Amino acid sequence: MTERGLPVKLWVNAAWRSYSHLFTLDGHAVAGRGDWRSFLLTPPEPPFLAVMTTAGAKNLIYRGTVGTDRAKKGVGARQIQD
User: Fold this and answer.
1) pTM for this one?
2) Kind and range of the H or E element at 30?
3) How far apart are CA 50 and CA 19, in angstroms?
4) How do residues 21-72 score in pLDDT, each as one tens digit?
5) Residue 5 and residue 40: Cα distance in Å, rounded?
6) How far is CA 49 from CA 3, 76, 80, in A?
7) Which of 18, 42, 65, 78 is most solvent-facing, going by the fewest CB within 10 Å?
8) Cα 2 vs. chain centroid, distance in angstroms?
């Protein structure tokens, strides 16, 4: 992304389906463990969308809930069945 000088990832490199994501008015980040810690302790100004995948196999972005209050963070969970 940086080496191409683009502000966002290209679709091929975005891994929308397999990774956790944080969306804010400032942009998008593929969220790692440190990002989640920071998000939970000091959430960004609303609106924001945070989507965490544990299985890495499902696209959850469209199921996320947009956060409109820093004090209330929505959490969704999905049970994976074999």
Assistant:
1) 0.69
2) strand 27-30
3) 11
4) 889 998 888 888 888 888 888 888 999 998 888 776 677 788 888 889 888 8
5) 30
6) 27, 12, 22
7) 42
8) 19
Residue 18 corresponds to which tokens in the numbers above? 């397999």
Q: What backbone phi and psi angles, to 5 degrees, belong to 69?
A: -145, 130
Could you give phi then psi for residue 49, rounded to 5 degrees? -135, 125
Q: What is the 3-state secondary structure (H, E, C) of the chain?
A: CHHHCCCCCCHHHHCCCCCCEEEECCEEEECCHHHHHHHHHCCCCCCEEEECCCCCCCCCHHHCCCECECCECCCCCCCCCC
- The token pair at 46 is 């609303």
Q: Which two tokens stand for residue 53?
A: 């995948």
